[in-house]
Design a protein that fits this description.
Strand order of the largest sheet: 6-7-8-3-9-10
CATH architecture of the largest domain: 3-Layer(aba) Sandwich
Largest sheet: 6 strands, mixed
Number of helices: 10
CATH class of the largest domain: Alpha Beta
CATH topology of the largest domain: Rossmann fold
Strand content: 25-35%
Structural class: alpha/beta
Number of domains: 2
Helix content: 25-40%
Order of helices and strands: EEEHEEHEHHHHEHEHEEHH
Length: about 230
C-alpha cells in the first residue's frame, strides 16, 4: 500500500532524511522510532506531501505520490495526524470532526455513518460533542484528533507522537484502538518517542538516527534487541 524507497530530503542546507525506506501494508502497524531529531516527523511529512523529497520514490497503492500536495493525498486516503493534535479553537467537538469529513469530500450521508462509528468508538466524545474541542482534556483531545482523522475514511493513518503528555490509561486506550483499526485492514504508521510502547504494538519497525535508517525488523525482534537503547535511542 505505502512504499517508501530510498528517499532523501533536506530543510534549508541541512539533510534531514538520507536513504530511508519503509513499507506499510493493510492491517499492519509500522513504528518509526528514534531519538529527538532523528527525522521521524520529517519522514511523516515527506510521505504526506508536506516536505518535498530530493530523490527516491513514494508510492501509494502503486501510484507515485512524491510530488502530490497534502490535500490531494488526504482525499486519496492518506491521513496524517500531526503532533500537537491541532484541534481547531472555537469549534465544537462535532464541528472539528465534521471538518475531517468535509476536507476529504465525504458525502453528508456517509459522514453521518462515519460519525456514528466514532461515537461508538469514543463514547466520551459523543457525550461532549457540543463543547469546544479545546476544552477537552489532553487525552480526549487525542481521541478527537484520531476520530477526526477517521472521519476522512483513511486507508493509511499516520500518527505523530499520539502518547505525548497523556496518562498511561489513556495511552493504552489509544494504542488498543490503533490495534483494533489495524485488525480491520487499516495501515498505520506510528511515530513514537516512547520506543518500547511502539514496539509492543508494532508488526514492523524502523529505527532512525540522524535521518538514516539504522535498524529494522519486527516489533518483537527489536524489543529483544539488547543494545537498541544504548546504540540508537540514547
Amino acid at each position: 500500500m505505502i512504499r517508501v524507497q530510498r528517499i532523501f530530503a533536506h530543510i534549508g542546507p541541512n539533510p534531514i532524511l538520507r536513504d530511508v525506506s519503509l513499507n506499510a501494508d493493510p492491517g499492519q502497524i509500522v513504528a518509526v522510532i528514534g531519538a529527538n531529531g532523528a527525522g521521524k516527523t520529517s519522514l511523516l511529512r515527506a510521505i504526506s506531501g508536506l516536505l518535498p523529497v530530493d530523490s527516491g520514490q513514494i508510492e501509494f497503492n502503486g501510484q507515485s505520490i512524491a510530488k502530490r500536495p497534502a490535500h490531494v493525498l488526504s482525499r486519496m486516503g492518506l491521513v496524517h495526524i500531526p503532533q500537537g493534535r491541532q484541534i481547531i479553537p472555537g469549534l465544537s467537538v462535532l464541528d472539528n470532526m465534521m471538518i475531517g469529513a468535509n476536507n476529504a469530500g465525504i458525502s453528508s450521508h456517509d459522514a453521518q455513518t462515519l460519525l456514528k462509528q466514532q461515537w461508538e468508538r469514543f463514547p466520551i466524545l459523543h457525550q461532549r460533542q457540543h463543547i469546544q474541542g479545546t476544552a477537552l482534556s489532553g487525552g480526549e483531545q487525542q481521541m478527537l484528533a484520531v476520530a477526526r482523522g477517521l472521519m476522512m475514511r483513511p486507508q493509511v493513518l499516520m500518527l505523530d507522537e499520539p502518547s505525548l503528555g497523556l496518562a498511561p490509561q489513556i495511552v493504552k486506550l489509544i494504542m488498543q484502538t490503533l490495534k483494533q483499526l489495524a485488525s480491520q485492514g487499516l495501515a498505520i504508521i506510528l511515530v513514537e518517542q516512547v520506543a518500547m510502547l511502539a514496539l509492543e504494538y508494532a508488526d514492523h519497525a524502523i529505527v532512525l538516527r540522524n535521518g538514516e535508517c539504522v535498524l529494522h525488523g519486527t516489533g518483537q525482534e527489536l524489543l529483544k534487541s539488547k543494545d537498541l537503547v544504548n546504540s540508537y535511542l540514547g
